[in-house]
Batch of 3 targets.
Target 1
Amino acid sequence: MLALAACGGGQSQDKGAGKGGDGKGGGQGPITVGYVTVQPTSVAMTTTLSGRTTAFESSDVRPQVNGIIRRRFFTEGSLVTKGQPLYEIDPRLYRAATNEAQANLASARANAEATRIQAERYKPLAAIEAVSKQDYTNAVATARQATAAVGQTQAALQTAQINLKFTTVPAPISGRIGRSLFTVGALVSASQTDPLAQIQRLDPMFVDIQQSSGDMLALRRSLGQDGIVATRAQVRLMLEDGSDYGATGSVEFSEALVDTSTGTVTLRARFPNSQGVLLPGMFVNASFAQATNTRAFLVPQAAVARDPKGNATVYIVGPGNKAIQRTVQADRAQGAFWVVTKGINVGDKIITEGLAKIAPNQAVKAVPASSPQNIAPPKKGSKDAKQAAAQSKAG
């Protein structure tokens, strides 16, 4: 019975192939395929570039007077605030200079008072010619010189006070201070090249991103064409170990010059860094969108294939329910979709299911993708029903 059933099945297949005319099951009708109808949407044009982290603020701690360091007031590697005392330079010479300037100011004020009174006494005497007018003129000039000397000594006192204040070296900014390059007892000067220490503000943090001038030129030329508009999107960071930084940043500005050695333009992004994960000098990868394409199509990746030349192709449901192969431009992926910018039109039905069974210009039965399939039992008296009954008896 099994042998007879096998022979009968082979004869049935031969007859079916003969009726179809092409040996591909033509007697069973068009192949059912699933499709999606595409509509244009706004798609961010995301790019990934390398960058390096930079401190938000950085300042060297430098002495402004000469002297010996007597004390250090901070712990290396700690957080310091703006104006906090960091070092003390021996203040004795500067305190003495301040005292001397104060004494000179007092003397100058006393002399100015005496010359002023003398000039006032000469004024009525000169009017009655009891003294010569030249003597009165000399007295007035001497009083004015004494007044000017008061201003000079007062400025000298202010300079001495400022130098005395400079013997305490404060923090110029708030941030994390590094190691101290000079110890207590070291001689420092206002003209030295090495700083006493360095302070860096690490929250927020800058990331300097390098982009080739050619890519930036192409982007600027494309703006306003084919639905491409500029955008200000968030920037995401990929750290050196391949992990995502988590917090997002924003591009602050782009430099108006090209580095002659690398041919790149620097874009600076700003990131929060409250946890202190980012440190100055780290290499990172930044992903962000510089523009948005408002006329792009998102096509499921399963619908896009590549021909031997590497061109992207899709099948659409064409006139007469035939599968039409079309070449499209799909340069990048976004999630589970290809971003198609050319080759398809609004309302096209892109075939996404049953692609392995179809060929160009083949008749198909198109249904919406992921439609449920209703499988009904065979009708009584049909050839399928008889074969099922025969197999049941054989079992």
Target 2
Amino acid sequence: MAINDPIADMLTRIRNALRNRDKTVKCLNSKVCRGVADVLRDEGYIKSYDVIEDGRQGIIRVQLKYGPRGETVLNSLRRVSKPGCRVYTKVEELTRPRQGLGVSIVSTSQGVMSDRKARVERVGGELLCEIE
């Protein structure tokens, strides 16, 4: 089965794993998906991730993170820019989900980064998803 949107597939797999209280989830490997996983790890939404080589594309194994009483750290993962409707933003127009408590993930010319880092670097780009 061909996957047209690997980022939406990754976010859906993570969302479903959190709903099932799984400890790990496996996603398809791509450069953008690794960038999204980097941002999730750096912002503290997941424990870690590692890439498993399978002779083809590879698999990203994501270690999910839960709170001290078992509550989910991620409340919502929402895909903003889709293959049918791309959303590009300037650095001044980057959104602040939950007044700065959430994170927007942006694909820039300097790689995939969070909205905070994009503001520091003064670059805009494609708004991939919002995390709250």
Target 3
Amino acid sequence: MERTFSIIKPDAVANGLTGKIVARLQEEGFRIVALKMVHLTLAEAEGFYAVHRERPFFASLTKFMTEGPIVPMILEREDAISRLRDVMGATNPANATVGTIRKMYAESIERNVIHGSDAPETAKFEMSYFFNAFEVM
């Protein structure tokens, strides 16, 4: 079994999509081992996305991620990282495959409803950024 990290982003939470996205992930065989709702400060968003600090979209991304509550979660299943990326779809919903979460719900490349770790090292950092050992089942 492998664990990965995901965030239901502020646009999806605001549009009432949290339940639909969680249900879809469970239908795809993911087991939720940690989940909560938080509202990031700008400093917290900047810390989480520090790897992108030099990218031109950093300021708009961190501002977006502080617009409202998010739902970070740790998911588990075989091949969790690659499978979550398949289920989410391409970052740009215009390029996402039909039936993926982003194709169904995302508005744009930035307001794309869900985040998922892209590698085991990234997942480890992201999980520990939001959850301590007492919060993981």
